[in-house]
């Protein structure tokens, strides 16, 4: 039995991630993570992107990402991704579509789909990124 339960209360920017992992040799293994996204650091004056891992197992990875300027066009060969916007605003390119993302928006990015985002405000864009399967960065292909 495998169960993934992700509950996001973006009004208070609290993240509750509960992951119940399968039965292994008759034992159930449970892992829980509770993080207040407001407490996650800010990008330094020189950093364009700040990434903080918040949870993960062999099936998925979760990150809080703070973007000051942009994430360049890229794709993931083996990963799908959900992005939940916590703060800020940006112009997103997803495949051949372009649109504005802002607080409380949720974006699904299928594997092999080119995507990028450029912040549109002085305030950085802060998002939760959930990638499946586990993300180690090896399948990221830069396209610009």
List keywords for this structure.
about 140 residues; five-stranded antiparallel sheet; Jelly Rolls; 13 strands; mainly beta; about 60% strand; disordered N terminus; about 0% helix
Q: Can you offer a commentary on this structure?
A:
Residues 1-30 have low confidence and may be disordered. A five-stranded antiparallel beta sheet has the order 4-5-12-7-10, with no helix packed on it. Strands 9-8-11-6-13 form a five-stranded antiparallel beta sheet, with no helix packed on it. A hairpin with a 4-residue loop joins β1 and β2 (14-24). With 144 residues, it is mainly beta. The chain has strands spanning 3-9, 14-24, 27-36, 49-56, 61-67, 70-76, 80-87, 89-94, 97-102, 106-109, 115-119, 125-132, 140-142. It has a single domain (41-142), classed as Jelly Rolls.
Oligomer: single chain
Which term fits the overall shape? globular
> Class by helix and strand content?
mainly beta
Q: Can you identify the CATH class?
A: Mainly Beta
From the coordinates shown, what is the CATH architecture? Sandwich
Range of strand content: over 45%
User: CATH superfamily, called what?
Assistant: Jelly Rolls
Could you tell me the radius of gyration in angstroms? 16 Å
Count of helical regions: 0
List the SSEs and their pairings.
Layout (H helix, E strand, L loop, with lengths): L2 E7 L4 E11 L2 E10 L12 E8 L4 E7 L2 E7 L3 E8 L1 E6 L2 E6 L3 E4 L5 E5 L5 E8 L7 E3 L2
Concise summary:
The protein has 144 residues and is mainly β. Helices cover 0% and strands 62% of the residues. A five-stranded antiparallel β-sheet has the order 4-5-12-7-10, with no helix packed on it. Strands 9-8-11-6-13 form a five-stranded antiparallel β-sheet, with no helix packed on it.
């Amino acid at each position: 039995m495998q169960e993934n339960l992700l509950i996001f209360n973006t009004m208070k920017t609290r993240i509750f991630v509960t992951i119940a992992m399968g039965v292994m040799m008759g034992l159930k293994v449970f892992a829980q993570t509770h993080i207040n996204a407001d407490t996650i650091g800010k990008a330094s004056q020189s950093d364009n992107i700040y990434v903080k891992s918040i949870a993960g197992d062999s099936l998925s990875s979760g990150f809080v990402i703070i973007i000051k300027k942009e994430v360049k066009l890229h794709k993931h060969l083996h990963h799908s991704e959900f992005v939940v916007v916590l703060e800020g605003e940006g112009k997103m390119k997803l495949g051949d579509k372009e649109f504005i993302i802002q607080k409380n928006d949720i974006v699904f990015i299928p594997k092999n789909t080119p995507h990028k985002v450029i912040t549109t405000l002085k305030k950085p864009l802060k998002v939760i990124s959930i990638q499946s399967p586990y993300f180690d960065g090896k399948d990221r292909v830069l396209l610009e």
